[in-house]
Amino acid sequence: MQIIRLQTDARAQELPKIGEAYYNYEVRTLFPERGDIFDRWGNLLAGNVEVYEIGVALDEVHYAKSAEAIARTLSEILERPGYTEIKVAAETPYEKGKAEFITIADFVPAEKIRQLEQKIQEAKDKGSPINLTGLYWVAHPMRYYPENDLASNILGFVNFLKRPENVAECQRDGDWCGGHLGVEEYYDGLLAGTPVQVRIPKDPRKIDNLPTIPPGSSLILTIDRELQAAVEHIADQARESSGAEAVTIVVMNPRNGEILAMTSTPRFNLNRYWEYPDIINIPAFNRAISQVYEPGSVFKVLTMAGGLDSGAVTPESTFLDVGSYTVGGIPLHNWDYTVWGTQDMTGCLQHSINTCLAWVANQMGPTRFYQYLEAFGIGRRTGIDLAYEALYPMRRPGDTDWHEVDLGTNAFGQGISVTPIQMITAISAVANEGKMMAPHIVKAYIRNGQQVEVSPKLMTAPIKPETARTLSEMLANALVNEASPALVDGYRLAGKTGTASIPTEQGYTSPLTNASFVGWGPVDDPQFIVYIWMEKPSASPWASVIAAPVFHDVVEEAVTILRIPPDEVRQQMKQP
Amino acid sequence: MDQTLLQAYRESPWRTQLKWIGASLAVLALIALIAGIYLTVSARATEVGYQITHLEATREAQTLEIASLRAELASLTSASVMAQRARELGFQPADMSQALYVAVDPSLVRREAQLAPPASSKPEPLIKPAYKQSLWDWMVEEVLQWRIKGRGIKP
Known about the structure:
Helix content of chain A is 35%, strand content 22%. Chain A is α+β, with helices and mostly antiparallel strands.
C-alpha cells in the first residue's frame, strides 16, 4: 500500500528533490545551444554569440568591502549601469534566501569582459590588485543575426532578452518567449532543442561525466542570400521611386516550391528588434504571407486557366467587348472604360479586359469556376513553413454573402482576397506544367549530426499540362505584343499585370490602387516565378507602369545570380 | 606413591609479548595500507572529478566561443560587407550584357550546402563491439545463444 501511495501521491514527486538535497545531488536543467540558420549555400543567417551576465555575491562583497572598487571598475568599462547604480546594487544588504546575488548587467559583449580581465591583470602586474571580491561573470549564448536586416521578414527573431531559463516567467507575463515570427517561431521547437535535467553530484568523487546535450537542429533555408539581397535592394528602390506604402516581392522555383527570395518593406535589424515596435506586428512583418488584399487583374490568369482547362473557351475564342458586361443584373466595366471590340483570349489578357474575363467565368458557370479556384488553393492556406500565414475565406455560391455578380467580379480579382504567397503558389501551376508544388522555406535540417533533406511536395494539379503550356504561351505573347517594360532581352517571359482598386466602406471610391505583377521564365523551362505587390503607389496607379519594371529588374538579377543563360545560349548548349 | 615429574614448558612472556606486538603492528600496517589506498583512490577520484568539471566547463566555453567565431566570420563576410569590399576593390555587379556563358565540368558547379553527412549514411563504429563487450556480457550472450540453439529457435 505504501509503495502504491508513494507512486501516486503528488507530494511524493517532491521526495526525490528532498532526497537529492540530503544526498548532495544538484538537479540542473541544461539548455541546448539554439540551432543555426543558413541559406541554401551555407551562409549563416542566424547564429549565437557569447555574452556575459555580471553580478555580485552580496555576502562576499560585504565581507571584503569591495563594493566601491567593483562600481568604479565596472562603470569604466560598461556603458550602463553607471557608478552610482552599481554601488547601490553591490551594497545591498545580504539576506540569506532573499538577497544573496544581484545581477548588475546581462548580455555584456565578450570584448567588454576581455577589457575587464585585462584591467585586472594590469593592476595585478603593477602590484596593486583591484579588490573585486564577490564579482562574478558567467558566459551564455545570445542569438545573433550577422546579416542584420537581410531576410528579416523570413527569419523572425528570438526574444533573447528572455533567456530559456526564464521562459516560464516570460509566458506568465504574456511576453514573446523564444522565437517570434518567421522561421524562428515556426521552427522554435526544432531550433531550441530539448532541455535536459541532469543530476550533478556535489561530491567531486562521484562526478564521472556530464551528459552531452545535443544542440537544437540547424536549418538550411531555400533562400539564396545574394538574390535575397538584390531583391531587397530592388524593393527598397521601388518603394522610394513609386511612393508605395509597402513593396512585397516573392521569387519561387515553380518546379519544387522553393522560395528563393521573399521580402516586404519595411525590414528591420533583427539584432535590435525592440527598437521597431511598429513593424513587429503580424500583418506588417511579412506581407507576403500575412496580409490579404484584392489582387485585381493578376487573378485573371487563374480565371483563364480554368476557362481553357474546362474547355469553356479556347485561345481562339473571341469576345466582343462593348465596354460593359452584365452579370447578376449588374453591369461590369473595364478598368479604364475603354471599348476593345472583338478580341481573342490572348487579346483579353493583353489588354486586361474585365468584361472578357467576366464572360469567361460566366461561360464556365459558377460551379466549375469556384471548383477551379478551390483547386488552385484559393480560400485555403498554402501551408508555407512560416508563422502567421493569413487566410481570407472565399465566398462561394450558397454562402449568404455571395451574390451572382461575384462570379463576374471575382473573375478579374475583385471581391476576393488573397495573400501574395497564395497567388504565386496558385499561378506557379501554370508555370509548372499544371502542377502546384507546396511553397516551403526550409530545404534541409541538421539533427543529431545528420542532414535531412526536405522533399518537395506536390499540392495538387489543378490544370492539365497542355493548358498550362498554352496559357504560358498566351501570356508570353501578350507581354511581347504590348511591348511590356517587364520584358528582358534574351529571355522569353510570361507575365500579367494587376491594378486593383482598394475597397472602402463606400465601395471602390478610393483613387489608390494595389499594383501587382506575376511573371515567370524562361517560358520553355521555367526556373523562377516572381510575384510583386506594390501597395498604394503615388507615382502612378498602374501596375504596367510601376510594377512591370520592378519585375524586369528582379529578373535581370535572378538570371545573373541563378546563372540562367539567355534562351539562345541554352538552346545552343542543349545541342550536342 | 610414585610421583611422576612432568616437565612443562611455557613460552617466555617476552616472546608472547613480541608476538602480540607483531600481530598488532601487522594489523595496524594493514589498516594503514587500506587507509592509504583509500585516501589515494579518493584523492585521485576527487582530482579527476574536478578535472572533469573543469573540462566540461572548458568544453562549454569553447562551444560558445566557436559559435561566436562562426557568427563573427559570418558578419565579416555578410552580403553587405562583401558587396562593399568588392566595390572598394573596383568590382561592379555583374551585368547580363557582359555575362559570358561557358560550358564547364559539372564538378566545378557551385554545390548547395551539405553541412553534415546525409541521414542515410550511418558511420561505421570505430571500435568493434567485441572490444567493448565485458566478460559478463559475453557470457550472457553465449548462454542465450546456446539456449536458442538448444531449443531450435531460429534467431
